[in-house]
Amino acid sequence: MQPLFSQTQRILSLTFPHLPADRVARLRWGMSWLSKGRPDHPPVVFAGPVKNAMRIVALDQVAERSGLSLGQGITEARAIRPVIDVIPADPAADRAFLEGLADWCDRYTPLVAMDGDRGLFLDITGCTHLHGGEKALLDDLLLRLFHLGVEARAAISNTPGLSWAMAHFGATGMLAAAEDAQDILSPMPLAALRLARDTVGTLARVGLTKVGDILHLPRAPLVRRFGPHLLLRLDQALGLEDEPLSPRLAVASLSMERRLLTPVEGEDDILGLALQLAKGLVPGLEERGEGGRLFELLLFRVDGKVFRIQARTAAALRDPARVAGLYRERLQAVHDDLDAGYGFEIVRLSVLKAEPFDQAQQDFSGTADQNLSLAAFADKVVARLGPDSLSVPVLMESHLPERAAAFQPLSDMAALSAPARAVSSTGYYRTARPLRLFQYPEPVQAFVAGVPEGAPESFEWRRTLHRVERAEGPERIAAEWWVDGETAPTRDYFRIEDQNGHRFWLYRNGLYGHGTTPPRWFMHGVFA
Hints:
Layout: E1 11-15, H1 19-29, H2 33-36, E2 44-50, E3 53-59, H3 61-65, H4 74-80, E4 85-88, H5 91-104, E5 112-115, E6 119-123, H6 134-147, E7 153-157, H7 160-169, E8 174-175, H8 181-185, H9 197-205, H10 212-215, H11 219-226, H12 228-238, E9 254-264, H13 267-288, E10 290-301, E11 306-317, H14 320-333, E12 344-356, H15 372-385, E13 391-395, E14 405-409, H16 418-424, E15 436-448, E16 456-461, E17 464-477, H17 481-484, E18 491-498, E19 503-509, E20 520-526
Parallel strand pairs: 2-4, 7-8
Antiparallel strand pairs: 1-6, 1-7, 2-3, 5-6, 9-12, 10-11, 10-12, 13-14, 15-16, 15-20, 16-17, 17-18, 18-19, 19-20
């Protein structure tokens, strides 16, 4: 059968067989421990709770050669090797280390997907010519990881399944074409199809141990006995079924990159490169008629550490000087966290989000848009102090006064004028709203008039008695039963003026004759 999918797709599978041990070895002996040779040290095993017992969940090469294996109890391991170095397992640290390696792999392709807790998938389709071909890319990747103190195995083929099988059960550095899939898979164990251990054991009990044993068997009996997952994994490895990969990060719409012969460390050098890269992005943005709203500067440090620094704009932007200015502010904000170490060898500027860019003719003052200075000010403040430093009021979908508006971080210049337009529209509110609205209504003691549904004759608020001279209302606002429940009381609002000319906004919470408890009065705001 000929592959139906992935004729031109090229997937690199990268697995780290001793990821926890490499993480600890780098901390103990430095990144160059692989090239210098492992120091004379007892076997290292990682212990974790498995079925109410402390068992080996990871180990290094020396421990493997000593006869230890995954799943063994720590007591049994000590009986085999009395002197071992037992380290508590730390899945969170292992995951962070794997994500750091995924960031590092962005130098080869932006399409990097996680493969469990010990591997990665890299979609290198269309990227290999930038690195001298597939073989050169693979050799460079493995060599760099070796010098970073990370043991890795990798392979390239047209499907994730075949690449995974070769990386785990073949010779590292293998390259395969689509037509060679069956020949490569046939001698491999069935575990190369990424099957569950129970399924592999069941197949072994009936004499099926290799992939070649099931290639030409009738499919219907296999499905009835072992389920559809077995053939699905086989077809995915052969390219008969598609297996899409989900990149861990969004792919940038535009990117510019500079690979440096001499690593840079200074902030001025980084900003100069950011300016050059921003100029390189302009033709692509102009061709699309767009401007950037979210930029990301990637700094690849020599030791493998990757820094991602994002800068947002309040309006579409394609001016290189302003983009570089934003990163001047961002570098000032993250200065203490940006450790250049031995320098950065790759600098990349990407546009993660873009919007249509409106061209405007400049007036006699040389300014095309009066809001340009305001947008530039907002961009600088947000870049220096963070996205929550500037907030704007926005209308919410609620008719209760305390929920009708809220403050949200400024992310778009259009948000500055939207609230004013909405509030000033005729008929939005039946009556005027107070100049100062309390976030939490304050209880008052009201002395009700002879009309039960009317305004009070006087009320006491903040230990002061106010006599009512004029009152207007009520304005009835029903409760939001979908938020507060069906038993939430109705509010009757009154605009009240006391004998001293002070104006207040009071409401009665509840109605007389409804419910077992009498209504209560609250102060919700004051007028000018």
